[in-house]
Amino acid sequence: MSPLNLIFLFILAVSAVLTIILILLHSGKGTGVSDMISSSMYNSTAGSGVWEKNLDRLTVITAVVFGLCILVMALTFPQGVIGMA
């Protein structure tokens, strides 16, 4: 495996974890994990619009990075050959 693939593998793992965390931070419509986390991070009456916009942007950016890493790795990852030692 080339060093470039190792770098993309690391970026893929980091972007996957960040995307999951950012999605869980979004405020939900009811009670749940996102409501517990987001209610402690900011006051829902003051400035939540700016926080939500920035959270949306970060989520989209990490999801795009994740998708691009999948695409690049699908094109550059070495293919194995069955029967060769």
Characterise this structure.
By secondary structure, the protein is mostly helical. Helix content is 72%, strand content 0%. The chain has one domain (3-76). The radius of gyration is 18 Å and the shape is elongated. The protein is built from three helices and no strands. The longest helix has 29 residues, at 48-76.
Chain-averaged pLDDT: 79
How many domains make up the coordinates?
A: 1
- Kindly estimate the percentage of residues that lie in beta strands according to DSSP: under 5%
Q: Roughly what percent helix?
A: over 70%
Alpha plus pi helix count: 3
Order of helices and strands: HHH
> Tell me, what's the shape?
elongated
Main sheet attributes: strand count, strand direction, barrel closure: none
Q: Count the strands? A: 0
Q: Quickly give the structural class.
A: mainly alpha
Taking Cα atoms only, what radius of gyration do you get, to the nearest Å? 18 Å
| Amino- and carboxy-terminal Cα gap | 16 Å
Instruction: List low-confidence stretches.
Output: none
